[in-house]
Hints:
Layout: E1 2-7, E2 10-13, E3 18-26, E4 31-39, E5 46-52, E6 58-60, E7 68-73, E8 78-83, E9 92-100, E10 105-107, E11 111-116
Parallel strand pairs: 2-11
Antiparallel strand pairs: 1-3, 3-8, 4-5, 4-9, 5-6, 7-8, 9-10, 9-11
Amino acid sequence: QVQLVESGGGLVQAGGSLRLSCAASGRTFNTYSMSWYRQAPGKEREFVATINWYGGSTNYADSVKGRFTISRDNAKNTVYLQMNSLKPEDTAIYYCNYYCNTGRDYWGQGTQVTVSS
């Protein structure tokens, strides 16, 4: 089992920044990638960003490219999402996803990000 604890959400004005963190614990020796997803009210959960755990390659949704940066600290089993130039449409619950090289994945409890106009 892998446990994920997210933090860093909150209320920010448009144009502001937030940094989300997601710490993984438990059986974390099969990490393949960690990712962020988000779900806005009335919408389906959507992909935001992902990072390969060992190679460090990243991928982003078009809607956040150039504004968000995903990074990781392997020693701390933690992934971060630096969010700059936030827009009201970024308002959502942000979820951390942990994907194992066994094919199994885990989800965090989510952290609310609210961007006011």
